[in-house]
Amino acid sequence: MTKLIVGLGNPGEDHLKDRHNAGFWFVDALAKQLNVRFETEKRFHGKVAKAKWDGEDLFLLKPSTYMNLSGQAVGALCRFHKITPQDVLVVQDELDLKPGTARIKLGGGTGGHNGLKDIQAHLSTPEYWRLRLGIGHPRDLVGEGARPMDVADYVLRRPLQEEQKRIDASMDDGLQILSLFFRGDTQAAMLQLHSKTN
């Protein structure tokens, strides 16, 4: 069965190190691990890398639209390659998880994440997999009575050095459970991932 891993982020040099680009960081790390390169594919509104995993086709996708239009790329590639929503894993930054924490789940709400909203609209279902990489919330950075940074400003800034180390560690944890995930042993993948990060 053909699989698709989508990393969410914003295109362009200005956004490379933004917290909002954690999904891009993950698929870049996976592409490096699999020794494949991303190529721009205009018909899929993004950059695509094709690999094999246990003999099955695996596509990696970085939409070249901005985050809130990510569904254009996901929908186009899924339709062309006949990939079902249950064979899609979307890797996203997650405000409600601390840096260093990663969680995987099937379906559920979008938590206000505009990229997920657009993907759900294009796939006509919320039943696709999400790998949520914690980036923390700006309210956690301020003392009592201080005004937190605006969420939009927070996600479009680079993490602090210590946060980046924790995010990188959670991405490694996510990469390590992919073999279980692709074998269909999703419960074991969840257990391994969720026991490593808190």
What does this structure look like?
With 198 residues, the protein is α/β, with parallel strands linked by helices. The protein has a single domain, classed as Rossmann fold. It has 7 helices and 7 strands. It has helices spanning 22-34, 70-81, 114-123, 151-155, 161-176, 178-182, 186-196, and strands spanning 3-7, 39-41, 46-53, 56-63, 88-94, 102-106, 129-134. It is globular, with a radius of gyration of 16 Å. The two termini are 32 Å apart. Keywords: Cytoplasm, Hydrolase, RNA-binding, tRNA-binding. This is Peptidyl-tRNA hydrolase.
CATH class: Alpha Beta
Tally of discrete structural domains: 1
Beta-strand level of the residues, as a percent range? Answer: 15-25%
Characterize the overall form: globular
List the helices and strands and how they pair.
Elements: E1 3-7, H1 22-34, E2 39-41, E3 46-53, E4 56-63, H2 70-81, E5 88-94, E6 102-106, H3 114-123, E7 129-134, H4 151-155, H5 161-176, H6 178-182, H7 186-196
Parallel strand pairs: 1-4, 1-5, 5-7
Antiparallel strand pairs: 2-3, 3-4, 6-7
Helix pairs in contact: 1-5, 2-3
GO biological process, one term: protein quality control for misfolded or incompletely synthesized proteins
Function: Catalyzes the release of premature peptidyl moieties from peptidyl-tRNA molecules trapped in stalled 50S ribosomal subunits, and thus maintains levels of free tRNAs and 50S ribosomes.
GO molecular function, one term: tRNA binding
